[in-house]
Task: structure prediction
Amino acid sequence: MLEKEAAFSGTEPVRAGQEIDAPKLEYWLGAHVEGYAGPLAIDQFKGGQSNPTYKLRTPGRDYVLRRKPPGALLRGAHAIEREYRVISALAAVGFPVARPFALCLDETVIDTWFYVMEMVSGRIFWDSTLPGLTRNERPLYFDVMNATIANLHLLDPASIGLADYGKGGNYFERQIARWSRQYLEDEAAGRDLNMDRLIDWLPSHIPPGEQQSVVHGDFRADNLIFHPTEPRIIAVLDWELSTLGHPLGDFTYHLMMYRLPPRIIGGFNGGDIKALSIPSEAEYVSAYCRRTGREGIADLNFYMAFNMFRFAAILHGIKGRIARGTAASSHAKSMAENVEPLAELAWAQVKHDSGELR
Result:
């Protein structure tokens, strides 16, 4: 997994086609970010598959800028103003996020909408097996991941100003429709037989029951910043896919790490988790259920198929951006190559997975 860390961690010079007009941005920062003082230097983070992400360096402190990608965009995608709204609400109640500083909806500054937040320094694990930890440490880090997503789902959206952050009810219907639409509309990325099968199967197999919470949408180890030396999360990153939705949809997306192969980002299926002292899938689910007052998770096969379909649709979107020349990362091609194997794995959940915990 060292190649993955080298590919996605750290910064590089700003990529061609994603340059920023530094003088215009510096003028805006001086007017809208309290305490800002240049001169400004700009690098680009290697990660950030969807919304290009930049490191803004000044003599006094560093900042992070997230922007919409330039060029033609699919309807409803890259809503960075939603990211800014949710992290503002969560920061106000002490949930671990990077502190937001300012949002810009004026396209004359750098040609796209963007926002600026604090640069949080800590430890990021690009491999979900959390290499570099001891067998005694690793269970503590898994437990804090579990606690953090449970705490997110226990927040009352209305009490933190997010009552209208998403449409109420029918979360899975809406999500399946959204990602089916984006997949079908993105002709540049082509079609996949298993994706087409899932589009037909998923809507008629949605489990009964409605629940609603703030959901992150992409809760993985590589979207978390841990304290440099302690088993503590100091910032949850990348809120682009957040909304109001069913907490089990969000948690089981996170749980996919147990069923995805290592070649797909976030997965460790096939590894010796006992030797690594990683809790079993059943133990991890039990901890989440204990924290959120659940007796268990039924219909796990549906949730896994749904989330793998959704993840494949996201990667399909990256594949489309490559075809249109707007991909936000030099490593987008390797991500896009996982559309077909991930869709195949999703359909395998439908055909073979009993839904029993592992």
Q: What stands out?
A: The first strand starts at residue 11 and ends at 12. Confidence is low (pLDDT under 50) at residues 354-358. Residues 268 and 348 are 17 Å apart (CA to CA). The chain is about 40% helix and 10% strand.
